Amino acid sequence: MQPYISVIVPVYNAEKFIRRCVDSLLSQSYRDFEVLLINDGSTDRSGPICDEYQERYENIRVFHTENRGVSAARNLGIEQCNGEYVQFVDSDDFVDENYILGMLEGISEGIDLVIGGIRQVEERGGRFLVTKEYRQPPGEYSKSELGEHFRDLLLNSYINYCYAKLFRKRILTDHGIRFDQDISLGEDTLFVLKTLDRTNAFAVKEEIYYNYVQHSNLTLTYRFRPDKFRVLNDLHFAIVDFCKVNRCYDQKTRTALDKRYMELILFCLDENFKRGFPQALQIKKQLGVLLGDEHIQKFVTQGNEIKQQYPLILIQAIRSKNPYFYFIVYYSLIVYRKVRSKKNEKAAVRR
User: Fold this and answer.
1) With the C-alpha atoms ordered 100, 103, 105, 110, is the resulting torsion angle positive or negative?
2) H/E run at residue 140
3) What is d(CA 303, CA 169) in angstroms, rounded to the nearest whole number?
4) Which has the least CB within 10 A, 74, 209, 285, 329?
């Protein structure tokens, strides 16, 4: 008998977390489901740990592949799963015991996608502390009502991740919806947009069952990616096009997207400075390419209210296209903020 739900878990070097993740799935109150563990070429003990679970539990299947990335792992899961509905869980996250059941309760006639909230948690001293929650008022909406509610989904980051959702598999297979294996930024968002575009109706759950784990204590190796802005820029305009097609590109949505775009510009520019002063000078060329990008220059030159939320000198530095000028302004603002912060701390102590 085929399982009703398939849970796809991409696994890469997750030996520290995978047991917690899988155990949370095995503790589900709902039982008619399978778990697909896709070991994406892990070099630690993740593979053997997955095999242990497969030997002990009939509803767990393991696939070992060469390292091709999380999108390829999820796509393999979609191709191999047997359930009528599909869910995705990341190997370093965990779910509440009613995760599957709670999401299933959002299914009614015609619903092809159920969207849930997430709980952002951080481990401190052996305990998980909630740092943020993303939740949305519940409701069921037809495709024609998507435009009315998309902005709320956008502002609450609901389209940014594929987990905490329940997808009707037929929608994915009939329309060839897969994760883009050529990008490693924003692939979740594109996948969700493609699905929303093909759904007859979708539901939003207010309850939160998914725990997204932040790893603030991990030191990640920084790797500059000159294509980061191009990828995220393409993603931004994919969202804009989606809004226009679905008639939800009103002033509020445009303002929200402008804010996201400005944050994107600063994020990509700031990436150049993560390795400190000497290294930042070495990648002056990449910084110059970003500052000269026509999309960035058009955005900071045209009139919009978002620019008013940032220091004028910073906007002028971007418009100058001069890497050295931007570099000086960037560090001057950092020093200014640190000095102001210390003054505020001293003033608070005097009170």
Assistant:
1) negative
2) strand 139-142
3) 44
4) 285
At residue 217, what is the residue type? N
Q: φ, ψ for residue 330 (rounded to 5)?
A: -55, -50
**How far apart, in Å, are the Cα atoms of 322 and each of 57, 263, 285?**
60, 20, 11
* Tokens encoding 67: 């390292």
Please tell me the distance from the alpha carbon of residue 333 to that of residue 339, in angstroms, as a whole number.
Answer: 10
DSSP string, 169-236: HHHHHHTT----TT-SSSHHHHHHHHHHHH-SEEEEEEEEEEEEEE-TT--PPP---TTHHHHHHHHH
* Cα distance between residue 67 and residue 121, in whole Å: 28
How is residue 25 written in tokens?
A: 């799935």
C-alpha radius of gyration, the chain, whole number:
22
**Residue boundaries of the structural domains of the chain:** 5-214, 228-350
What DSSP line would sit under 19-50, residue for residue?
HHHHHHHHT-S--SEEEEEEEES-SSTHHHHH
Q: Is the pLDDT of residue 320 over 60?
A: yes
* CA 175/CA 182 separation, integer angstroms: 19
CATH dotted code for 5-214: 3.90.550.10
**pTM of the full predicted structure?**
0.84
98 with 209: CB under 8 angstroms?
yes
Q: What dihedral angle (degrees, nearest 10) is formed by the CA atoms of 20, 23, 24, 29? A: -170
Nearest to 40 by CA among 57, 19, 56, 18: 18
Tell me the helix, strand and coil percentages in the chain, rounded to 5: 50, 20, 30
Residue 323 pLDDT greater than 50, yes or no: yes
Asked whether 256 and 154 are in contact (CB, 8 A), the reply is: yes
User: What are the tens digits of pLDDT across the range 220-266?
Assistant: 334 456 677 788 888 888 999 999 888 888 888 888 888 888 888 88
Q: Are 190 and 159 in contact (CB under 8 A)?
A: no
